[in-house]
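Quick one: sequence plus zinc ion SMILES, need structure tokens.
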Amino acid sequence: MRRHYFLDEYTIIAAERGKRPSDFQHPGTGGRSDPKTCPFCPGNEEMTPPAVAAYTDGGVFADGKERVKGWWARSFLNLYPAVTAEPGPPSGEWVADFARGFHEVIVESPDHQADPSRFSKRDLQRLVCVYRDRYRCRIYEPFVEYVSIFKNWGRVAGASLSHTHSQLIALPIVPPALKREMAAIGESPRCPYCSLAGREASSDRLIFENERFVLIAPYSSTVPYETWILPKGHLSDLEGLDPIDRECLAEVLGEGLGRLDRLLGGPPYNYTIHQLRDPGYHLNLRIQPALSTIAGFEKNTGIFINTVSPEDAASQLRTA
Ligand SMILES: [Zn+2]
Ligand SMILES: [Zn+2]
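Reply:
Sure thing.
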């Protein structure tokens, strides 16, 4: 049983003998829908709420009476939001709060067939800039305490539409998991993520590194082939990324997604960006392939059983 680097969380690594990447090959991410009826495709902009930001070569615009065309990324409020800017009163006799916030869909490419694991360098750099821009736009809203940015790729990973997109949910609270992390960070003499990035750079869990970032298989990986992207220097959120950081993050994200794609044949996955406006926090991005199901033991104990050791996963991903 392995304990998380600095949290009271555990994973059981139960590597099954002889298990190969081919045992995790996935029969695809669920197929592609028809671009004619895809609300995320160019020409179908009327099928979504107006863009809050359409990213074009000429600048960033919000939709007016006419929908902006010629975009390379586009963000709009979710038609079926989990949270809204003007929610109804809380209901229920237990503790309830207004589900106040913003829920955006970020369409990452006008190309219906685009696959982020094969994004070009320019596409990846643009994606990082869009994430940073959307984050900065929402984190300073008066009631917003946390901005969750995540991607679901493939139907089993939660993507309801196949056209590549991410989501942003801005919340009026800091999620409990982040609060627990901050408490543990506050008790450490040095930022544990800074220590981690330094230590893992020379471990057998390192997969790739560049000047500013590392890509590792975390010691207590909760799912097979989980990877984390960490800045080597202390940065708390996307806003703090300078232009070189952005290039380096784009590169390492491309390496993380590309290697998974080559090793496992296009698996479904989620990636999540963990960040806080609090300068004590350390930005990190986690990629979790959706290859295993959360079942009874995990629900009963909160402890995961992972059948691929992170050292094996890293070794396979290094050569993929
Ligand atoms: Zn489409
Ligand atoms: Zn740090």
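The mean pLDDT is 93. Residues 56 and 271 are 25 Å apart (CA to CA).
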